Amino acid sequence: MFFFVVILPVFVLGTTIGFFNSQKVEFNYLFGMVELPLIALLIAEFVLVALLTLGASFLRVFGLKAEIRRLRKQLRDSETELRNLRALSAPPASPAAPLAAPPKVP
After folding, report:
1. Which domain holds residue 83?
2. Looking at the domain assignment, is residue 96 inside a domain?
3. Does the predicted TM-score (pTM) go above 0.70?
4. Is residue 102 part of a domain?
5. Is the CA virtual torsion 73, 75, 78, 82 positive or negative?
6. Where are the annotated segments for Disordered (predicted)?
């Protein structure tokens, strides 16, 4: 179902764009010149931009994951320190002493 709803129309649209952009164009780049169909240049540009975007996204995600690991370690250390401080300030445990009965008034 997903194929017919999303993939098939995209495929048909891509084929149509490819058909109408099949004329040869001259592409000048830094080291020379090449003559290619316009659709080939459009696809190459799309792939190149997609790869660059994915690379930049992966770098950002990798940096954020490193920051999460650092913050989790910092939180764990802070919780340990807080536990230790609470243990220091707590009164020492004493054996349960029986409660004294109040004195009787005659």
Report:
1. 2-88
2. no
3. no
4. no
5. negative
6. 86-106
What are the per-10-residue average pLDDT scores of the chain (106 residues)? 77 82 87 89 90 94 96 96 88 61 65
Please report, as a single letter, which amino acid is at residue 43. I
**98 within domain boundaries:** no
Number of domains in the chain: 1
Q: Where are the alpha helices (DSSP H) in 1-106?
A: 2, 8-20, 38-89
- Whether residue 14 is contained in a domain is answered as yes
CA distance 55 to 69: 21
- Close Cβ partners of 51 (under 8 Å, ≥ 6 residues apart): none
pLDDT value of position 93: 61
Three-class secondary structure of residue 36 per DSSP: strand
Sorted by sequence, the CB contacts under 8 Å of residue 26 that are 6+ apart come out as 33, 34, 35
